[in-house]
Structure formats: structure tokens, C-alpha cells
Amino acid sequence: MKISAQEEYGMRCLLRIGSSNLPDGLTIPDISQMEGLTPANVAKLLRILRMGGFIESARGRSGGYKLAKPIDQIVIGEVLAVLGGRIYNPTFCDSHTGVSSVCNHIIDCSMRSLWRAVQNAVDVVLSRITLKDMLGNEKVVTELVTALNASVAENQIVN
Fold first, then answer.
1. Which of 13, 93, 100, 111 has the least C-beta neighbours within 10 A?
2. Crossing angle of helices 5-19/28-35, nearest 10°?
3. Would you state the pLDDT for residue 122?
């Protein structure tokens, strides 16, 4: 399980836009230079984020990219889903059948149970973190994630 370059760089672009105080937003060249990415890559990522409803663009001389909604309403799990998808989704088993048309473990699969549990834990954490949280410093985000992990663990023990 890896975070894709698209997810990483897309999040970096969104964080950069979210932290900007410029009234006209940031341009592709601005973001490209600040993040060390090619303008073409930034344009691709911003298009995905715009189509996902997280940013909006204005054309023209004073145009740029700005957030489409307040920072506390942009959920990181939703952003990552638009940028790359989920670690595990229900069609996973259809894609990994080996040479057979149906997986040999369709009835009793311990791996499916593991991936489902991992995805659920990731979903719990990512659904509770917003862009506002991510604009804090590393210590603040670490404390938030630690608290969320403790909450997840406590809920699993209770259930």
C-alpha cells in the first residue's frame, strides 16, 4: 500500500492553495514554482481537484485558483478519494483472481478481511480530518491523528 504521486502532489497543491492569502488565488506557475512540480503536472492535479469540487478557477489577468468551500468543510478522505481512490474497495477481488475467472478464495478469504479492516480504519481517520486541520503544523496534526487512532482502537475494543 503506497500513497501515489498524484495523491501526494495533489494534496500539496491543495494545501498550498488553502494557505494562500492572495485575494485572486494562486496560478499554475506560482504553485509549480513553490512545490517544485512541472506546470503540466500542476495543471493536471488542479483539474482533478476542480472537477472534485474542492477548488475553483478564475480566468484572466487576475485569475487563479482558490478553494471552492471553507477549509473546515474540505474532508481529506474525500480529497484523497478523488485524487486516487481507496486502498480496498469491494471490486478488489474481481481484479485479483489469478488465472481463474473467479478468485479461489471467494468463500473464505482472510486477506479480504484484513484489507477491509485496514480500509475502515483509514476511512475513520481520514473522514475526521479537514483541510483546516492539515494547515496546522506537524505537531498539531500528529496530536489529532494520535487522538483519532486512540478513538478507533477504543471503538474496536468496545465492539
1. 100
2. 110
3. 87
- 20 vs 157: which has the higher pLDDT: 20
At the topology level, CATH places domain 5-85 in: Arc Repressor Mutant, subunit A (1.10.10)
The one-character DSSP state at 55 is E
- Pick the closest to residue 42 from 31, 54, 26, 52 (CA basis): 31
- Which alpha helices (H) appear in the chain, and where do they start and end? 5-19, 28-35, 39-51, 76-83, 92-95, 110-126, 131-134, 138-158
Where exactly are the structural domains of the chain? 5-85
